[in-house]
Amino acid sequence: MASIYIPYGTTEGQTARIAEFIADVLRAHGHEAETADIKAAGDTIPSGCDAVMVGASVHMSKHEEYVKDFVQKNRETLDRLPSALFSVSLAAHGDAENAETYVETFEQETGWRPSQVALFGGALLYTQYNFIKRLVMKRIAGGKGSLETDTSRDYVYTEWDGVTRFAEDFLARL
Fold first, then answer.
1. Which of 50, 105, 115, 137 would bridge 2 by S-S if both were Cys, CB 3.0 to 4.6 A apart?
2. How far apart are CA 64 and CA 149, in angstroms?
3. What is the pLDDT of residues 50-65, one digit of tens each?
4. What is the 3-state secondary structure (H, E, C) of the chain?
5. CA 128 → CA 55, 83, 90, 137, 154, distances in Å?
6. Can you give the pTM of this predicted structure?
7. Among residues of the chain, what percentage have pLDDT more than 70?
8. How far apart are CA 73 and CA 23, in angstroms?
9. In contact, 95 and 144? CB cutoff 8 Å
10. Residue 152 and residue 140: Cα distance in Å, rounded?
11. What pLDDT digit, counting tens, does each position of 82-113 carry?
């Protein structure tokens, strides 16, 4: 049984939901899994972890700065332990090339080359946005062509079967 730490950065909560889902998959396979919002938990990897899976969401074409800082601070540990990155963005739904570019930039900026990377679609949570953000997100979604623009409901683009495969593939590599 491995102890796996899943720190993440999230803006609207979808990366947190994915991290919790991954933890549930890991636990179902008999492992210990702890999720942590980096903003609340701090930037230290707890001792005793056997592996780390970092989650980061993309906004305005970039991963959060505090996630980059976390990775840079903990790079030695991330390089030593089995580690993975899951990147959550709207680009991962229908624009894989841009989603991959975001990860490449993240790797260049942090110097970390995780052994496993996954790109997961995020969510458009129109009903949770204020009026201005709803209009901005509708405009962005309309320009993408692959995203919904009906602001009366929310859209989740995360492929949960893919999240399960990512978690199980990670376990197979341990």
1. 50
2. 25
3. 999 999 999 888 999 9
4. CCEEEEEEECCCCHHHHHHHHHHHHHHHCCCEEEEEEHHHHCCCCCCCCCEEEEEEEEECCEECHHHHHHHHHCHHHHHHCCEEEEEEECCCCCCHHHHHHHHHHHHHHHCCCCCEEEEEECEECHHHCCHHHHHHHHHHHHHHCCCCCCCCCCEECCCHHHHHHHHHHHHHHC
5. 22, 33, 16, 12, 8
6. 0.94
7. 100
8. 23
9. yes
10. 16
11. 999 999 999 999 888 999 999 999 999 999 99
End-to-end CA distance of the chain: 10
Q: Which residue's structure tokens are 């991330």?
A: 78
Structure tokens at 26: 């890991």
In single-letter form, the type of residue at position 12 comes to E
Token pair listed for 33: 């899994």
